[in-house]
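Note to self: keep these together.
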Amino acid sequence: MSSYAHVVGWGKYVPARVLTNDDLARMVDTSDEWIRERSGIRERRLAADDETTATMSIAAARQALEVAGLKPAQLDLVIVATVTPDQLFPATACLVQDALGATRAAAFDLSAGCTGFIYGLAIAAHLLRAGVYRTALVIGAETLSRITDWTARETCVLFGDGAGAVVLRAGENEGGVLASVLGADGSGGELLELPAGGSRLPASHKTVAERLHFIHMKGREVFRFAVRVVPLATQQVMQQAGLPLEAIDLLIPHQANQRIIEAAVRALGLPAERVYTNLDRYGNTSSASIPIALSEAAENGQIDAGDLVVCVGFGAGLTWGAVALRWTRPQPVPLPRWRRTLWRLVYPLAWLRSRLRRLWRRVMALFVREAPESR
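Structure:
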């Protein structure tokens, strides 16, 4: 049995298209000053027409695998945390697994609102620590622009698209995910929801006309919930880890609102330089916000081996959670170009394998249809 689950790879993907506050001011009754004052956001990224949660997940996953120095076939598990899957089914994680060529991996989606990545990270870590799996890929990815009402000023200024991923690897050396805390309060489900599109309110002319396929949020109630649970979850996960709050080297909160982050930091008594934020550039990317920030901090050299990193989030459900991890991965040495090129050949081969398997199913279906019935 393996004792620890280490983060050995990380990656992110954000779309090229930038939507600034000034752009939004031409769409709805708002201004750059109004948005920055209430949220801290200056701009956000929006997916192109041919980009989806799956395509962004794949891009982030490839980067994470390259950092980890692992081939997709070495993965045992793929988890995609998202509230904007490509389809209700199959799971977006299965599309990612197929595109990567992770032929040995189990795959499933996880829906826990903006806390989704924390839930996925905690579940994967427990499975690795129990010895069920050895290597896991955990992704947080969202295409929120597809469910944002661009006529509603209160919500359209907040959200953006993107994906972040980490690779977890089981190991006996001390470190990695030390503790996790997960929570939920379904009585607050109505505070942040996508009302229609499920089995309760399937799509109809009425639901479309009433704009029920877009995000609905009661902002003040969510704000009050967030400023309470972020410091609470942080304190609880540090207690579980057996460490004082002062031991935190870097806090990575869900990037939802700058005022929420500042209130939580004050409650925890942490200095501002120990808190990572990129909200101003990406907006709220839901389950993607924490892995994007974690990957960015690692890329920028803001996390050193031995650092204690706490990731904490909250979201629809209502849900909340935190993970404390001891960073054990040094900065990766960039591969030579020829090795990177060779490494990336696995993805065209995965595409070819997928097409061949689909062709084989069609051939077999044709054969079965034409075979004479047995008497």
